[in-house]
Amino acid sequence: MYTRTFLATGRRASCSAAVFKSFSRQMSATARLSSGSTSTFVVRPYLRDNLPRPFSYSQRRTMFIQTATTPNEHALKFLPSTPILPENSRTVEFVNGREAHSSPLAKKLFTVDGVRSVMFGFDFITIEKDVDASWALLKPEVFSILTEFLSSGAKIMLEDTTANEDTMPQEGDSETVSMIKELIDTRIRPAIQEDGGDVEYRGFTEDGLVQLKLRGACRTCDSSAVTLKNGIEAMLMHYVDGVNGIEQVLDPEEEISLREFEKFEAKLKSQKGDQVSA
């Protein structure tokens, strides 16, 4: 019980914590008086200057954001002190600003010059930068946007996210496919999300190849081939009979982007070679 002096019939009254914390303006309340009877009256806080003013509690929310490196030197994992997506929902990735129409936060992040892709997980945000961009310049802007947006309580996604549809049981799934999906959900996906990425199941071929699509930090990581071969492939072949290997799948627009990226890297290497020769 909280005891406060109120401007009400000139007597001292006791008010429960729930009532005491809830009012932010003049209101009616029922209190038990010292005589044992109850009385309903207008409740206002008693201030030292004897001027009744609305009483209110304000709580300031503090936002902590940490960063973690990923195997991809061009991608960073941001870890805010608040969930980003509902628990157990699938990750959401935007590879350009045009795709970010369903996320006000992603749209803001793409306004930062040098941001190449954005991916949301349950409790993390992976941001990939352009090759020639500098994290020293990008990080302050990203921190500013994340802190302001997440502290405001605004919706991150305008559309509800769903569970991982790629690994949901489907009618006609063989025992092998069911085991592959279970391993992806329980062992492979959590490990990859630790590095700021994700993996998507795309199919199982007659040749025993598991078709997968890497996302987030892993999508353009130099060590993605090692991740696929030494990590995912080894685990699937060990636990699931009939799996002979894995096959990385790219969407058509990603294949074009990858070819352009390889041309750009080759051009940079050529320029550096010419400078050394000179």
Topology:
Blueprint: E1 2-4, E2 13-15, H1 17-22, E3 27-33, E4 38-43, E5 65-69, E6 75-80, E7 92-94, H2 104-109, E8 115-120, E9 125-129, H3 135-152, H4 175-194, E10 197-204, E11 209-216, H5 224-239, E12 245-248, H6 252-277
Parallel strand pairs: 11-12
Antiparallel strand pairs: 1-2, 2-3, 3-4, 5-6, 6-9, 7-8, 8-9, 10-11
Helix pairs in contact: 4-5
Organism: Myxozyma melibiosi
InterPro entries: FSCA_dom_sf (IPR034904), Nfu/NifU_N (IPR014824), Nfu/NifU_N_sf (IPR036498), NIF_FeS_clus_asmbl_NifU_C (IPR001075)
Protein name: NifU-like protein
Could you characterize the architecture of this molecule?
It is a single chain. This protein has 278 residues and is α+β, with helices and mostly antiparallel strands. The chain has 3 domains: 2-43, no CATH class; 65-152, Ribosomal Protein S8, Chain: A, domain 1 (2-Layer Sandwich), CATH 3.30.1370; 165-253, GMP Synthetase, Chain A, domain 3 (2-Layer Sandwich). Helix content is 33%, strand content 23%. It has helices at 17-22, 104-109, 135-152, 175-194, 224-239, 252-277, and strands at 2-4, 13-15, 27-33, 38-43, 65-69, 75-80, 92-94, 115-120, 125-129, 197-204, 209-216, 245-248. Strand 3 (27-33) and strand 4 form a beta hairpin. The model is unreliable at 1-60 (pLDDT under 50).
